[in-house]
Design goal:
By secondary structure, this protein is an alpha/beta fold. The protein is built from five helices and six strands, in the order E-H-E-H-E-H-E-H-E-H-E. The longest helix is centred in the middle third of the chain and has 29 residues.
Length: about 190
């Protein structure tokens, strides 16, 4: 038995990269893993790899930039499992036209919604369930750009990733009394 047997984890951005690796690792420790991202096919590949190794994974595609879609997935998790122990808040994106010379309102919206609003939506959707079941862990993927602004990453991405770091700190300030812990990874 793994150290997370009986636990439920929700991994966003689970179709590739950091999210995929996190989902496989959590399942390897015994957690039941819910996989979310915008593209169903990569999520199904992650689920197949987890199931092949003997783990449990369920695919729930959604556009996390839409709060209603986030609430639907979180509600499904609550109804199906009655708990959520771990949120890996990893979904994110960047835009091509990211310099100040190129940046548009549409690009700002996409960068902020894809990296910060989506993280807030997922967090606010799961906190009630974590409070109800006595605690949980939130792991957010930010970036080095979330600590040190970067022209390479662009202003919208850097600002949004800074926001993810601040969000995590405030969760700890308020939710520690509910045994909810939050941390940020800054690759």
């Amino acid at each position: 038995m793994g150290s997370l047997t009986g636990k439920v984890a929700w991994v966003t951005g689970a179709g590739s990269g950091i999210g995929q690796a996190a989902a496989v690792a959590l399942a390897g420790e015994g957690a039941t893993v819910v996989l979310t991202g915008r593209r169903k096919a990569p999520l199904e590949e992650t689920a197949a790899a987890i199931k092949k190794a003997g783990g449990k994974a369920f695919v729930k595609p959604a556009d996390l930039m839409k709060s209603a879609a986030v609430n639907k997935v979180a509600g499904d998790i609550g109804r199906k499992y009655g708990r959520l122990d771990i949120l890996v808040n990893n979904a994110g994106l960047n835009i091509l036209e990211r310099s100040w010379k190129q940046l548009s309102a549409k690009g700002v919206d996409e960068g902020v919604h894809g990296n910060l609003s989506s993280a807030f939506y997922c967090t606010t959707a799961v906190l009630p369930l974590m409070r109800k079941t006595g605690g949980g862990v939130l792991i957010h993927t930010s970036s080095v750009a979330g600590k040190v602004p970067s022209l390479l990453s662009g202003p919208a991405y850097s600002a949004a990733k800074h926001g993810v770091v601040a969000m995590s700190h405030t969760i700890n300030m308020e939710e520690c009394v509910n045994n909810i812990r939050s941390c940020v990874v800054c690759p």
